[in-house]
Amino acid sequence: MAKNKNRWKIQAAAALLTNAHITGFFTGKIYKGNLKGICVPGLNCYSCPGALGSCPIGSLQAVIGSSKFKFSYYIVGLLILFGVLLGRLVCGFLCPFGWFQELLHKIPSKKFSTKRLKALTYLKYIILLLFVIILPMTIVNEVGMGDPWFCKWLCPAGILEGAIPLSLTDSGIRAALGALFTWKSCILVGIIILSIFFYRPFCKWICPLGAFYALFNRLSFYKFHIDKDKCTGCGACSKVCKMDVTVHKTPNHAECIRCGDCVRTCPHGAICKSINLRKTENG
After folding, report:
1. Confidence of residue 280 (pLDDT cuts 50, 70, 90)
2. End-to-end CA separation in angstroms for the chain
3. Could you tell me which of 219, 211, 164, 154 has the C-alpha nearest to residue 187?
4. Of the candidates 3, 60, 129, 255, which lies 20 to 30 Å from 28 by C-alpha distance?
C-alpha cells in the first residue's frame, strides 16, 4: 500500500501553524494576542506556549463553567461548522495530538488490533457528555463557577503541550506542581505506551472532540462513496483500516478519520471521495 505522504505533510503543517508562537517555548510565556480568541479545529491546549488559538473543547468548558453561563453560539457553531464541512477529517489531518499518536505508532514494535475493543469507542461519547458538559455545568463553587473537568482531570494534551514545556522554563510553575500533575502525567504516559502498540487509542476511546465530529461523519459535505458497480466486497479496504471500519459497508462510519488508506488500497478503484450534500450510499 502506498503511503499518503501528502497527509503527513498536512498534519505537520497543521501542527506547526497551530503552534507557531515558537518563542513561547523559550520564554515560557503563553501567547495572548487576538488570535487566541479563535478556536482551532483540532485538540491543542490553550496553555501551550506555542499555541496561537484556543482549543474548542477547553473553550466550550470555560463558557459552560462560567458564573454567567450563556449558550455559546460561537464555539458550538464553529464546532458544528467543522463537523458539517469535514466530519472526522479534522481528526485525520488537522489535529496535532492525533498526529502525535501516529508518530508514536511508527516506533518498531508488535502491533495489536483494537477490533475486539470496539465497545470502548462509546466511552468518548460518555466523556463528552459528562466531563465536557454536565459536570462543568452542575458542580460549581460558591461564586457559581465550574471546573473544566476534562481539561483538568483527563486531557493528556494539556500536560504534553502546556504543563511540561511551561515548567521547564518557569521555576515557579515547577514548584507548584503537585498530585494533579502526577495524575495527568500518568495518563499521558499511558497514552504514549498504548499508542506504540495500538493505533490512535486516545482518538478511538477518549477524545470528546472526536466524539463530537463523529456525530457528523454521515452528514458532512466531505464523504466517501462506494461505487457498487466496481466493488466486489473483497474486504481489502477493511483490512487496511486502522480505525476498524468495514469500509465497503459503511464508508462514512463514525470512526472513519478520512485517512484515505482504503481509497489507495482498493484494487478496483471502487472508493471515491466526494464533496456534496447528497446522501451517501452505504453509510
Report:
1. very low
2. 24
3. 154
4. 60
DSSP letter string over 114-136? Answer: -GGGGGGGGHHHHHIIIIIIIHH
> Looking at the DSSP assignment, which residues form a beta bridge with residue 223?
274
What is each CA distance from 263 to 7, 110, 206, 275, in whole angstroms? Answer: 13, 25, 27, 15
Does residue 245 contact residue 202 with C-beta atoms inside 8 Å?
no
Q: What is the distance between the alpha carbons of residues 93 and 55, in angstroms, rounded to a whole number?
A: 16
Report the chain's mean pLDDT, rounded to a whole number: 92
The three three-digit cell numbers of residue 82, written as one number: 467543522
DSSP string, 205-244: HT-HHHHHHHTTTTTSSEEEEE-TTT-----HHHHH-TT-
CA 69 to chain centre: 25
CA 53 to chain centre: 15
Paired strand residues for 159: none
Mean predicted confidence (pLDDT) in 59-69: 79
43: nearest Cα among 189, 257, 253, 241: 257
